Amino acid sequence: MADPLSADALVAALREEGVTLVEHRGWRTHNRNGAGPWGPVHGVMIHHTATSGTESSVELCYDGRSDLPGPLCHGVIAKDGTVHLVGHGRANHAGKGDGDVLAAVIAERALPADNEADTDGNTRFYGFECVNLGDNRDPWPAAQVEAIVRASAAICRAHGWGKAGDTSVIGHLEWQPGKIDPRGPGIGMEDVRSRVAERLRHPAGWSREAPPSGQDKEGEDPMPKWSLLSTTDYARTVRPGEWTTLNFNRAHEGGAWVSRDPQPSILVGPAYYTASVGVRVRGLAAGQEFQIRLAEYRERDDGGYERTGSLPISSPVHDAGEGHFSHTWTGFLSGSRKGRLRVEVLSNGEGEATVDWARAETLYWPA
């Protein structure tokens, strides 16, 4: 349980975490406190605006709509990573959600499925709206996702949240049944929580000492590291409805391809990355959906690995026969418990499909 931060304390926390701020007109006294309480607060909620354009999105979130008065959040996060503060106090962003989810947030334990709408979230959560169409095609730039992480970490740090876990930051889709936000290429709440947890292990100035964008203290841009993995003489059967991990048995090193033992991991954390994966699939039926995702794993106490999350899924549909599919993701892979990144595929048809070639190219910045 915590009282909300004052406007001055919120600004100080965000700036200390390295967030670029714009203070919108009158935001410090702009709220819906007359409609109900704000606080005690327990976490941060992330949304997408379902709009495009920074200025119009900020104005919408400040003013609200005819059926929903503003502010619609406390801050609007633009695609360039700038956070526009539009309200301080109760805001119309969360609506009613699942009380079991709130209990999990308070206890900092794994989130249950949201299947009820019995608890007022506007009282309990800080809210950030992020400029994105939410159509699952509009991409989330790395700068915008990093701003989400920094802003969330700033609030968690100020309140002392995140000591027992990293579930103080949730998406609207994890709170209210039927909601889908945030979604789209480059955003995933498991990834956001992992990065917030990593930041909270360091002082607030950590990002300025080793920023994920690759910019160093002198303002120079060091080159990222590069990894290129592929397969040869390879066939991986993909059974309907089962996520199947791909293994890579070639690596490009020293200007040439070299063989290696087949391995599923394409990256070991901690690192910020952009990864592009391509696969060739045979045996698809007309209209059959084939899904590709990047999945995060960590080591268990017994030495095995367990999946801890995944990035947004690419779901192409092919006419029939052979398909070449590719997708690109941006994210952060925690180094906690030997974090690993793997490529997984799934076929939604009735029959088996076969992946006979795959390639994973990754640019990454060790954190």
UniProtKB/TrEMBL annotation:
InterPro entries recorded: Amidase/PGRP_sf, Amidase_domain
Q: Which GO terms describe its biological process?
A: peptidoglycan catabolic process
Q: Where is this region: Disordered?
A: 200-223
Q: Which residues belong to any copy of the N-acetylmuramoyl-L-alanine amidase domain? A: 27-183
Q: Which domain of life is it from?
A: Bacteria
Q: Which GO terms describe its molecular function?
A: N-acetylmuramoyl-L-alanine amidase activity
Q: Where is coiled-coil annotated? A: none
Query: Per the record, a Pfam family?
Result: Amidase_2
Q: How is this protein named in the record? A: N-acetylmuramoyl-L-alanine amidase
Q: Which organism is it from?
A: Streptomyces hoynatensis
